[in-house]
Predict the 3D structure of the following.
Amino acid sequence: MDLGLTEAQELLKTTAANFIQQEYPKETIIALESTPTGVTPELFRKVAELGWLGIIIPEVYGGEGRSCTDAAVLFEELGRGPVPGPYFSSGVLGALTVLHGGTEEQKHAILPQVASGERVLSLAVTEPHHGWRPETVQMRASLQGGAYTLNGTKLFVYDAQAATHLICAVRTSPSTNGSTSGITLLVVDAKAPGVTVRTLPGWMAQVDEVRFTNVRVATTAVLGSTEGQGWETLEAAALQAIPILCAYQVGSCQTVFDMAVAYSRTRVQFGQPIGRFQRVQDHIINIVNHLDAARWTTYEALWKLDTGRPAAASVHLAKAVTSEAYLKVCDSGHEVHAGVGVIREYGLTLHTQRSRTLYHLLGEPRYHRRRLADALGW
Amino acid sequence: MDFEVTYTPEQEAFRTEVRTWLATNIPEGLEQPVDPGDLSLEQYQKLRELGRRLGAKGWLYPTYPKAYGGGDLSVDFVMILEEELDRYGLHLPPYYDSGGRLGGASIFVWGTEEQKQQFLPPIFRGEWRTWQLLSEPNAGSDLAGVQTRAVRDGDSYIVNGQKIYVGSLHGCEMMWTIVVTDPDKPRHENLGWLMIPYGLPGIEVRPMELLTAGGEGGASPGLKHTIFFDNVRVPAFNLVGGENNGWRVATTHLELEHGGGGVVRRNRVVDQFLEYCITTKRNGETLSKDPDVRDDMVEAYIKSEIVRLFGLRTYWLSHAHKPRSYEGPQLSYCRKTYALEIAETILRAVGPYAMTNDPDWGPLNGLLEHYQRSAVVGLHPGGTTDIQKVIMARRIGIGRTTKEQAGRLR
């Protein structure tokens, strides 16, 4: 038993922390927060050069071939920012989807480009009847003259504005409508005629609406050799991707905790640091309890994945605990900071926004609670 | 990271040895009642016999040096012992011995060599069962405000006062307590830490009527007592850690009481509650198929998993000798508050059946009924949840730049 990081992981953590400190000062993150892509070409290039877009991609496909836990160590540091941009969407979720669903040829064609940053992937799965469930995928792709025609809307697509390619979940056969299977994944050029990406306004960030109007897609765009395997691919990719997303949330919780502790020492009211008041202490203790619950459920799930143990229950547990914890940690952070906490330049709201924006990604806590019960065989 | 012990061939051989040993050395007819208050004298004596047998092998307190009756075993070997005992529903020590578990650590850290030689072997070999005496009628959360007096008289201390919430069913051999040794000194510098043999003249032990008896993180005691000291003469040799140093000695066992040692056991009540829901039918439908019950099951499961992981994390920090801070009291706080919430969840999911231990109607031989009570009682032993939060806040350094250190365990 050893619950510490390996030397290589400590090194990665330090490298990532130093890079973020240098390249992603708070002002930069605030400036990027509500931009459509959440990233600049220069920053994206620098991250790609560090190999981080290919961290989980096997070396044979041009990646670093590192473990889920390694990737999580990196994403925990990104979460501390919280660094926006399509790093998770492309380098983790997109890459894992291609890895689990693609043919050998597709993997060789796509994954090296994802690792180098030439291609940016985004998953377009959910629709106006939102839900992370196969039944909610209704968009049709009809086969006409040797190509598919896509019509419909994908809603709450993360990082579509930054993407060069959308991995789009569709129904290719009318008989499969409403069923849990029969979903096909198509790799669609984001610049193809008829694809319109629109940033959703409001508090969420880098989440988009994608409209498809008579978009023509070649049959070679089907991920994998056959139609109808899409949901199984998404499930397999999500199983590994979710705890890495959780690690990002853990990192963000850690920063909110650090901010709250620091503020409790320096903010003086009634003649003493506010951290001397037990009601303020309660908020911070609430934060650290949520933070640690998120951290240890997440890293246990990662350990199970990396050691080939059955991990489904642990992954659902981690996602349910972590997404909920993230929200509550930010809430308590605001209780501690009061007015200062909602001044945008202070930086706390970066985390609060992200805790809400990521709440539903790959399934909200309630969904994962139900899946947890299923996974435990109840 | 590795959340499990990866055992070496040497350790696997040890497991075989332990398994074989337990098969022949666990006394025959050993059974543990659902309510620890029902532990018979005969069953208690069987557990003590097992304790002495384990102690003779150095397996009762296995991490301590052999020179003092321990086993010189590292954490991975101890995990094997715990895992193998767990197959019988037992753990180390196999009966309530919080005085030994906690006090042994204090003596080990703070005692003179002579005191260690005299006190530790009987504890670690299972010859003594030890009670800790801390709370008084007017000193609970404010433990440093105890009033029991110990006045030096030649080679003895004369002890007068009263302690409450003490001990367990079927007595003990040794007790220890904190007493005021110098009432004129400031708080925390006025206390002594004293070993007191159970049978000394002037000691009166009176059972308390409680909802149920909660343990201090160890095996459940079954019964608690009020203890009166009326001019009890105790050898001065028994003062551990020196004059007026009792509070520092106490930081060691308080660290353990506050969860600092961690725990690697699952919440068996939750496991059995889940199993009950999966296997019990109401109106022809399995309980676990009811969506509301299913939500309750998930809620209880998630909380028990978080506590399990906090226990594992703290166990690792403590046994791998890593720096510790707020983790122990965090484990204690979450274990206690979640237990109470889980009890409510169980009551909601199972219904009024959870409130009876009737042989006909009470589920799981009354286990759930007992949990309804023990979750309430369990809030206070080893420090209230509010006290755990106070300690966490000091160690995190909320509102202060100097962080309080965790208590010494070595």
User: Anything to note?
Assistant: The two ends of chain B are 25 Å apart (CA to CA). The beta strands of chain B are 130-133, 149-153, 156-166, 174-180, 191-197, 203-207, 225-235, 239-240, 281-282, 285-286. Residues 53 and 270 of chain B are 31 Å apart (CA to CA).
